[in-house]
């Protein structure tokens, strides 16, 4: 399946899932503040609880993403997509029913537990699905289009929130999440390019194979620290991409964990203004990933596109950190048209370092590294955000935590400059039991 049109059902599945997930983002800050600190524009408890939740979710996904990626190599992408998409529905239903204090705490606990499995898994599996069916030369563009689909869902979800009440927002989100699961189960075809037995045979010769081939297939799919270390050591390019993924995720999570509370405290933003800001981000990202990136990818190397994306992402964060008026965040959001180059480029660079039988494994590894950043980031940035938005700040700089997040992305930018195109490592072809250059 070489043509992008053959991925239409995957794109629709990703769109519906992300639409339901993104449309609640503008509303959740107001819901959290109303439940925990009614009538206030600044709430340290809300910031700390959000940070703790992100850290716990990151810790869970750090363990689960490599496992899900490995299992999808053996049992298929569609099978592994079903569970996280189902679990996403339940927290939405709770807030669709009621958003009072105790219902919010129920949502908080359930969302934390389910997101340990769900957060990032749909993206991880979708990227592996694309890698299964698209040739290496076209993979960066395909990953960019997949990110563009997510950005268009981001726009649609946030735009719809602009015209819905808070209760209706969560009701519609829950309904769309149900539709996404049904659509995926009915229309999406399994993408595995080899059968389970063929995959097991091929893995015996592969770079990542460490276990005893007599073990049951499930236990062979269980990730280990040795698997991750072996993959990181197998290619300098992959190791550099992993470092970039860590620091860029560290900065991005730091930005988004602080930005909404920062804007609410400094400029009294509400649900509608959050939605407007996110729609601008989403439109810029959609135009870039659906139009600009597919045009530039054949001309400019992925490594250069990655550096461009990280540089403008850093500029975006720096502008937000020193925002002197309510229009500055809207202006900074336009830099997303270039900043969104980074994630698909990282994934494409990593994808080319392994063969078709290990795409789930490598995407799970990158997602796990990003999840580790999700653990570290709230532990660093949530206390900084709460401190510098409070009256006890050591000096007046409300956006200090966002500037620190920008420094993390700057580290990723510097590392990305050092990445040089490298030939893919030896991998296993699915039609041969021997390793060969792809």
Task: Describe it.
Helices cover 75% and strands 1% of the residues. With 438 residues, the chain is mainly alpha-helical. Helix 1 packs parallel to helix 8 (136-161), helix 7 (121-133) packs antiparallel against helix 8 and helix 15 (302-321) packs antiparallel against helix 18. The protein is built from 20 helices and two strands. It has a two-stranded antiparallel ribbon. The longest helix has 32 residues, at 44-75. The radius of gyration is 21 Å and the shape is globular. The chain has helices at 8-22, 25-36, 44-75, 77-87, 89-97, 101-118, 121-133, 136-161, 166-187, 196-203, 217-221, 225-234, 236-267, 271-296, 302-321, 328-333, 336-339, 342-351, 359-389, 400-417; strands at 427-428, 435-436. Residues 194-221 and 427-438 have low confidence and may be disordered. A hairpin with a 6-residue loop joins strand 1 (427-428) and strand 2.
Secondary structure: number of strands: 2
Percentage of helical residues?
over 70%
Proportion of β residues? Answer: under 5%
What is the overall silhouette?
Answer: globular
- What are the low-pLDDT stretches, counting only 5+ consecutive residues below 50? 194-221, 427-438
SSE sequence, one letter per element: HHHHHHHHHHHHHHHHHHHHEE
| Mean pLDDT across all amino acids | 79
Q: What topology, given as strand order, has the largest sheet? A: 1-2
Quaternary structure type? single chain
Largest sheet: 2 strands, antiparallel
Total DSSP helices? 20
User: Termini distance?
Assistant: 17 Å
| SSE class | mainly alpha
Q: Rg from C-alpha positions? A: 21 Å
